[in-house]
Amino acid sequence: MRTSFGIFAFLLTMLFFFVKACIAQEIFVAMGDFLHIAIPCLSFAVSLFYRDKEGAKQFLYALLMMILTTQGIKFLTKDTPIGVRPYGGSKSFPSGHTASSFQGALFLYKRYGWKWGILSIGLAILTAYSRVYGQYHHWRDVVAGLFIAFVINICFVTSLRKRNQLIFAEKY
User: Fold this and answer.
1) Does residue 171 lie within any of the structural domains?
2) Residue 147, φ and ψ in degrees, nearest 5
3) CA gap 72, 107 in Å, rounded
4) Cβ 94 vs Cβ 144: under 8 Å
């Protein structure tokens, strides 16, 4: 019962953010705004579903490191030419939306295998493209966000895959 309520609350929260984003912006950009939160939330939910406490800890630590790295670089580059957005604003480099969506997608891929990773990576690519399409970022910003997520996942996430099989965490 608690699991069903948690999934319902998660979906309702995601629906709220999606509708809010759609009202303010065009649908493709709004989808990117939605997915940059939904993909990491899905990653954490999968860890909880498998009762993988170590995976949940690794995810949260990697997410924290990604946020600190991305925001630190944004702070350092905000008043430089590389930090200028296509529409003229600041804090463009790197793309936080791209970093967070790829953080979740690459976590799923590395921790739980390609079956979880393939769809989430595809959605992360759509998120990255939506940032360029909406003229919030240059391609270099998006690639930098992907690179940050990739390096952090290499450093802080371990795989549960062995011979292409998912090893399920013990049920408590």
Assistant:
1) no
2) -60, -45
3) 22
4) yes
